[in-house]
User: Fold this.
Amino acid sequence: MKTQKLAIIGMGHVGSSVLATALQTELFGEIVLLDPKDKVAWGEGLDQMHAGGLLSRKNIAVHIGDYTDLADADIVIVAATHVYPKGEIPADRQELLSENLPIIHEIMTNIVQNTQSAMLIFITNPADTVVHIAATYDYPRNLMLSTGTMLDSSRLRQLLGQRYQLDPKSVSGYMMGEHGYAAFPVLSHLTIAGIPYDQLSTYFPDVDLLTAKEVKEKVVQAAYDVFAAKNGVTNVAVAQAAIDIARCILLDEKSIFPVSVSMTEHEYNFEKPCAYSVPCVLGKEGVEKKLLVSLNTWEKEKLAESVASIRKSIILTE
Assistant:
């Protein structure tokens, strides 16, 4: 009987967090680690395996491997990135492209030679441009996405949960567009207990209602608060986001997550194809449906800004 298998490509800060989170979820019977620095991957795997003798930990096989191990993988999470010296990591995710572009080309070249059926979940930044590049390879588009604004959306719910002194999971809402500076909140569809955002003051009169611009600025800044405090690293929450996506697909949950996917020029009427985050139904077939939600005037403007920002990076790859 085959157990569910995860492959993690890139065992830096993010990849090691993905491994730790995956082991805690107990979704996988086998986890294979790929990294050019075999010693690092081996060390991370061994460190986690040492917890296997604890009664709290399930006996899950973890080992280093190579691209041939992807042949029977169910999920592949790509967290590989160029290694920058401390203090030199660009704050703008789009600036990571020049160093990460050849890495993604190498990874995709090897992936398509070894599997056509694994779900590919990209964390590598710039997340949207990376998905666009991946979609140029001979691989099913429904089986590739990046975590996109899933993390941004969690920060949005956390922000409003704290502001209204509620469990963030009671906030139903999401960010769209670019994972980065140009991400924006879709407040026209955000609710708390079914109450539309613009009516919250009726139920919470002591809490000032933030404007869409203020919400956007606070959510985007939240990422850089972590970035600055952890010397250019944000790894724990995005690892959880990637594993939540994996779980949704493996269990065919049909959850709706805002993830970055390849979009045609006809979707939202842009001039050229791009990749950016929209709400998507995820299940055993991967990206099963894109939900092209209606947007108000401000949101349309911000989506256009997101696409323009991502297209600047894409042009550099063409």
